[in-house]
Each structure stands twice: as structure tokens, then as C-alpha cells.
Amino acid sequence: MFVYVIRRLLTAIPTLFVIVTMAFFLIRIAPGGPFNQERGLSPEIKANLEAQFGLGDPLWLQYVNYLKNLLHGNFGPSYNLPDFTVTELFAKGLPISIQLGFSALALALFVGGILGIVAALNQNKLGDYSVIALATAGSTIPTFVIAPVIQLLFGLTWKLLPIGGWGDGALINKIGPILTLSLPQIAIVARLMRGSMIESLRSNHIRTARALGLSDWSVVVKHALRGAVLPIVSYAGPAAAALLTGSIIVETIFAIPGVGRYFVDAALNRDYTLVMGTVVVIALFTIAFNLIVDILYAFFDPRVRYD
Amino acid sequence: MLKNMLKATVFATTLALATGAVSMPAFAEVVFNRGNSADPESLDPHKTSTVYEAHILRDLFFGLVMQDQGANLIPGAAESWTVSDDGKVYTFKLRQGATWSDGSPVTAEDFVYSFRRLEDPATGAEYASMLYPIVNAEEVNTGKAKLEDMGVKAVDASTLEVTLKAPTPYFLEMLTHQAAYPVNKAAIEKLGADWIKPGNLVSNGAFTLAEFVPNDHIKLLKNPKFYDAANVKVDVVNYIPTEDRSTAIKRFEAGELDSNDDIPTEQMADLKTKFGDQLRVGAQLGTYYYAMKWDKEPWTNLQLRKAISMAIDRDFIAEKVWQNSMLPSYTMVPPGIEGYTPIAADYADKTQIDREDEAAKILKELGYGPDKPLKMEIRYNTSENHKNTAVAIQEQLKPLGVEVSLVNTDTKTHYGFLEQKGDYDTARVGWIADYKDPETFLGVARKASGNNYSVYNNPKFEEAMDKAAAAGGKPEERMKDMQEAERIVLEDTGFIPILYYSYKNLVSSKLKGFDENVMDVHPTRFISKVE
């Protein structure tokens, strides 16, 4: 197992390298640059700016310099927010996105999991249909609709939650964004859980367990759940990578200072260093969570072994 | 005994809390939560350019001259000034006893340092051109002269002498721009790039920087060392970036924001009903126009350009597309600059029907028709309203047999393309005044201007502009020359003015001193908040 993890981590290095290289050149293909804006700059002023950020150098040299800096953990300054380095922007924003994303994921796994089990145990009965209806609704209503509705109801009408803002991390400011992030996830998890649970309940070892006279609780929780949870685990890995790195929609609507918005804003602003920073962060999260999923697989399914 | 004292304290605290609702406001600090359409790129005044950045920097820094709540020019760090008879030498007397937020005195040397820093190529200042009227400023910025050669000199600690290349009547107005604000040399030399961070930033304005959490808030505190601190009513200003306009409206409604500098224009009518006087919309110094590629066939034909301009129904666009959040425009220079009456295009007084008839006639004479349709491409940067404007124009030109195609790109691509004078027919451009003078709008059309996206070039226009510049010392004559220049550029129809910008502020009725003005300038030092 240990060897396996080390091997996986080592293969991550060339993967990252390829991703970084592709991203570096792809963003440069986009027309315009970080200093094109409504108010044009004279060629001299633009040259001054570009010189300051080393953008006047040939592209290959910029690439080599970028890689060098990256190896030292230096993502460079943000072009469009020069008061901050890319590292500083992530240091401030990433913990916020992780908090919200992790809470939303945990909530989704818990609530969605329970709903899925309830549906599976009541297959083709009222409970099942209610969950399916809820899940369908939850996964089809987009977040940019859910978020304003939450703001309108909980913020303006009932005055229970603030409309937006981070409020230095006050719990009350997190409820809206977490709910919005988790609702679609709850729907997906519930549906996955229902499907795999039904399948698991029909399997031979469950029939055996029931025949042995084990209690319903024991059959469901100890035996059926363990097999049923695998599809959830494989879904939760990539979902976690996506959730923890922030959502532009939720962050923009709730005015949350996370990193989700950088993925889009940086690209639109041709903020090359920030684009690269986000690419590296997402890549790292994706690689890490895929590895975690594989390890969890071995834990839940005794047939899976990594040697 | 101790127990009793504890009891008494608890009792007193409870009492204080209970009565707090009544007595608190007198002691509570005044917090102004100010919605701002975006975060600043930087808080370094030499590295910014936009209106939403200017709001914050105007609170933090104190230039030689400043603007009051009506955008009128008032003394700032300079108490008074004199201008030499030839209009070239400005001598500023600095305010006695004025200090930076760290207590050190604000000296003429600080301004020498700051003006030089703005022009220093190493700074990479976007708005270095704001001080180009100063002797050798442009030369320094383009690496053709040394910093020391700039026409700015500290005569003594409190006297600053600035020498201009030519009389520039709008020079004082230019000095109100953030690019001309002073920065603290000692802090920059000691801290390098970190000088701008909260806790490090030394400024000389009515407020000081306390916190900057990107995409969340910028917190400023009242500066007790500010010369007029006694009259500053707000203790804390939180600049809150409100990228999502709809959320901003809800936050304003819920009282989380006291003001916001923009609204979702498509909701204009509803907002008017909901907020009444709290929604303030009015003309701002800014023009929204289409630049026609002057040197590209068939647009080299004056009559053709004119026909296109006449066929555009500006009233419809302002009313239907922009919900009256923009106003129809027929001039390059918007109204609202004292001493200057803009010159409108000659067809401005005609009815839209007459204009369309005339346009149809021109197109017919030029041989365009169903067999030979005129093709025109409109380029615009991503925005729902820019798109709708282009679509409206497409529809308006269709009956005349003009086939309009639309090209939408993101902002960086759009301006990157225009800057390289790419192959386009017409492109959407917006221009907001940097200072209150017609020059800021007409200068765009000059041959040498980097913003001349029309590639417009008429020696007569250049001549009129040069004449205006030469008449620097005589304001009336100068304005007449400017009018002549505007008449020429409009007659040539290289730029098609379509709309005037307007400010769209949501201002809580609790705020006083947030006065409406054409520059949309609202220094917090003049604002007060009553509960």
C-alpha cells in the first residue's frame, strides 16, 4: 500500500508538468494581454509595464523562468492585482473555499446518504418517490437560481441570514453558500445511494445475512452499506476537488472572498500568473482526491488490493 | 463583598445594554458600508486608472488640489497657488503642519518624489500621461530624459514649483486625478512592494488603510492627523466590492450597504418604484460611441459614414435598451463642463424619420440596394447591454439594406484588437472623463492618440486642437477653438456618438453629503450618516 501511494505521488509529477506546460502556452494563444483595457495605453507605457513583469522576454524564456519560480514555490505576482502575489491570494481565499466546500460535501454525503437509504428501503413506495422527486428537482435547478431564492427568502423576507458577505467568517454568513453548494450534491448523492443500496440489498451476502436472522439495522448498516458506498466514494473524489476549490457562481452571488472566482476572472483578465496558479491548485486537488478515492476503495472493498 | 460587586457590575451592564438602544448612537462610531462595483487593481495611486479605484484613493490620499462633494476644485495638500503670467509656472504653497499618517511632515520634496515616481519607467504607471504637461515628464517616461530633468522643484519645504511645457488650463483639474497623489518615499524605500499593505501604508488623506481582504472588503479608518479631521463625520468606511449587481441591490435593501455605485439597468423601472429618491441617476461626463474605421473601404466615404450615423435611432436605444440609464448623444463632449457648450452633429435637430429618409437616399445614390447590399461588422466587448445596443442598430440598419454582422469578444480581446488597429468596420468604445475639460474627449480623436480607434486623421482638426492648446491663457478663445475642433470631428463622422453615460447610485436616505455631480465624485470626508 505504502509503495503504491509513493508510486502514485511520483507519477503525479510528470502529470503536473504536462498540465502546467499546456496551460502556460494555451493562455498565451488567447488574443489581448493583461494590459488591454477600455483606456488604451501608449506603447511606451505598455512597454514599461510589460518590462516590469518580464512580459517583454521571449516566450520560451518566460516559460523557463516560470518553471524555475514554480519549483521554488513562487507563483509570481498577480498582473491584475499587483498588490498581492498569487500565493497571497490563495492563502487568503483557499481556506474560505475549502471550508465552504468541505461543509457542503459533508452535508451532502450525510443528508444525501440517508435519503438514499430511506428511498432504497422503501423502494417504489411513497418515501422512495418523494426522494426521487426531490433529487430530480435538486439536480435540475441551477445554483444561480437557488442562491438568489435563498437570499430573498432567508435574507429579505424572514431576515434570518445576511444577504451576502463573509463577515470575517461568522457562521451565519456561511449558511446560505453551504446550502446552495450542497443542494445539488445532496440530490446526486441520494440518487447514487438509492441505486447502489438497492443493488446491494439484493446481493447474495445480504440474503445470507438475513437468513442468519441478523437484525434489520445490522444488515443495512454493517453489511449492505459497506458495499453500497463504493459508487459514492468514486463520485465524492472528483466532487470534493471541484467543491473545495470554490464555485464562481456561489462566491459571486453571496459575495464570498474565495478562490472560485479566480478561475474565470483570471482567464478573462489574462492574468497569466493567476491562471497558472489556479490550474496548479485544481490539478493538485484532483490528483490528491483521486488517490484518496483509490485508497478508500481498498478500505471498503476487501477484494481491492494495491501491491 | 466581591459577590455584591459582581452583582452590581452585572446589573449595571444589563442596564447599559438595555438602555444602549437609546444612548448608543451618540457614542457609537459611524460606519459607512460603501458598495463599490469592483475591487481596486491596486491601492498604489500610481498604478490605477478606474473610477471605482478613485473613490477609495480619494479617501486615502490628499493631492495638491482635490474635489469637493460637488466635484468642484478645492485646495488639498496645497493651501494656495499662483500661476505665472505665461501660464507655465505653477507655484504651490503647501498646508502648514500637514502630516502623513505616521506623523512625518508632508513636504514639497514628497511631491517631487511622487511626480518623478509616476513618470519613472520602472514604476510602470498606467496613467503616467496625466502629468505629461510638465516639462520633460513624457521624455522621462519614455526613457529620453533623466528623472532630475523633470519640471518639478521643491523651492523650500512647503513650496513646490511645477513648470509646464505649454499653458495647460486644465492642469489643475488633471491634478485632482489619483495619478497626481503623493506617496510616502520613506515607506516605499523601506518596504518595497509591501509598502501598500495594511499596517504599512502611510497616506495623507482623511482616512487610513486598516484592512484589505480581496473580494470582501477594504476597511478605512478616520485619520486623526488629517488637517480637517474635526469635520470628518464618518469613522469607518468599508468599501465592499459588489460585482453581482442583483446581490448588491438586495444587500442595500437589507441595510448591509449604505450605498452602491451601480445597478442592474434592466431593473431600472422596478428599482425606481422600490427605492424612490434613494436611486439617483443623472448625466455623467462620459460618451459611448462607435469608432468607424476611417481608412478602410468603403468607410472612407464621408456620406456613407454619415448615413450610418443618421440611421441610428439613439432615443430608442437609450429608452428601450438602456432603460434611460444612458442618454441619447449627438456630441463628442458631453454637456456639464463649465464654459463649454458642446457642438452637436448637424442632423441632431432633425426628426428620426427625416434622418432615416436622408440615410436611405445617400445609400441609394451610392448604389447600395438589394442587389448590392452594404455589409458592416460591429465589434463589441462582452456585456448584455453592449450586445443589445448592437442588435438594435443591426435592426435599425436592416430596412436600409445594410447587412450588419456582430462580433462579440471579451474585453481584453476587444481592446487588444482595437489597439493593433485590426481589420474592423466599427467598434464600440466608451470614454469617461479623467478631468473636467473638453480636451479629455477631443484628445481621443487626435492622430497621435493611442485611443484613436477610428484611425481618424484630419489636419484641420489637428490644427484646431493645436490652436486651442496655444490659446491656453485665454479660456474663452480656447473653448471656441475646441468647439471648432468638435464641429470638424463630428462633421467627419469618424466617431459616432450614441449615448452619454450616466451615474447610477443607490444612496440610503441616512447619508448626507453624497451629492450628485457630473464626475460622480463622492469624497467620504464630506459624507455623514444619521441613524
Automatic annotation (TrEMBL), chain B:
It is found in: Periplasm. Pfam families: SBP_bac_5 (PF00496). Residues 1-28 form the signal peptide. This is Oligopeptide transport system substrate-binding protein. It comes from the Bacteria. It comes from Aminobacter niigataensis. Keywords: Signal, Transport. InterPro entries: Peptide/Ni-bd, SBP_5, SBP_5_dom. Belongs to the bacterial solute-binding protein 5 family. Residues 73-451 form the Solute-binding protein family domain. Transmembrane segments: none annotated.
